[in-house]
Amino acid sequence: MADFIFLNPTPNLLKVADYVKFSGRGVRIVSNNQFPPITSANLHIFHENTYSTARKTSNPKEIPADCCMKMKKNIFNFMYGGKIKKALTELGEGFENGNITDLCLMNSLGVYSHDIKSTQGEPVAHQTLLSEYPNSFIVTGYMESLNGSEKMQMYDTDFSIKDAFGNDFFVVFTKNSRLEVCAHGNRLITVGSKTTEHINTLAESFPMLKQFSFKKVKELVISRNRQPWAYKVIDKRIVLLNDFSYFSLSLKLPDLWYEKAGRLLCSEKLR
User: Fold this and answer.
1) CA separation for the pair 247, 154 (Å, rounded)
2) Once rounded to an integer, what is the mean pLDDT over residues 175-189?
3) Is the whole model's pTM more than 0.90, yes or no?
């Protein structure tokens, strides 16, 4: 019996799962079929008509502990949140729409990955998990939720997406928005505000896209935790963990972070 279900795990989330497993708890690693299996090589950040690249490496620069060790929200976090916003604004126009993961990414410009697919079996529907594991704790970095503030949109196109975007992941900052972009097969995947049409936002930064046709084939409202603290409890069984990742690409965190996150799960203080 699995005590913990790690759903759609990132590389960093797998490390937390390892700690939980080594602590003697039952762990199951699963994906669901709501989301495409996003796997990326490098990560590019577009801002103010320029870009920076975070290259995938086996040993990227580690994020400083004082940027990522907050586990739970407390009364002082609003002060830290203001500090994060100020630091983002100093990076340039558009970054005020970013979050702490973006700030750490710009300071490290390094990511790592892992063969996540080899750790899990066939995709499992979310409702199946809830019914088959009624007493398990579900840990994830992102999930479908009508209460979420973001949405994932998927578009079919009339040109080769792979030729345009390759196998890389993109974070695009504009004056009024922030958008994540990648290709899956010949389908364009975007993640951003649920109040905007992403392809219109993307065309502001890449006018050439206006020459092509895009047909939206799927849209999911999602929840993610991009707060400075790691844990956001959705209910007694589901936790959103900000593990400083962009789907298949993770920032390198201090070893103590993975231990602290796993220990807090095992302590059941979040229940």
Assistant:
1) 16
2) 92
3) yes
